[in-house]
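Structure tokens please, single chain.
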Amino acid sequence: METMSAEPKARLLEQTFFHRGRVFDTSHDIVELPSGIRLELDVIHHNGGAAVLPMFENGDVLLVKQYRHPAEEELLEIPAGRLEAGEDPAIAAERELEEETGFRAARIEFVTQFYALPGYSREILYCYVATGLTPGKLNLDDDEDIATIRLPFAKALELVRTGGIKDAKSMMTILLVNAERGPSNAE
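Here you go.
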């Protein structure tokens, strides 16, 4: 098995912000790689996000359906939201679960974390599975128009495989939960 060694990092030579927004900022960066090669890149600066797969005792999952303008369609996703600066991702996952679905969880377990688009974005997504669900209080943000969809885990897994779920964080979380918990989830 290969291990990654502590190689010298690239050096930031110049950074110019050209957009400061509500959700993210963007900069034009000039970096020098350890090899001496210089790159000019546009970078999205984002606090990251937390996502959570709510799973009921019988194995059903709760997904949200919402219109995503950049995709120009309604997508089926796991509940998720943006992190506040310095916020613990697990706490954000709990918050988003209740805000978007109206459920609370007795347990939130870490599944994975990953860079959403490492070629041009610093956004890291933290994914969890929530169990021990009990009713809480739905509290959608003003800009959210969300419907909840409850379905068997096997159906969610099938939707990942057939293109019915196209959102990467949702796909990855469902696939990893299936791999970790075994094929009995998919029956």
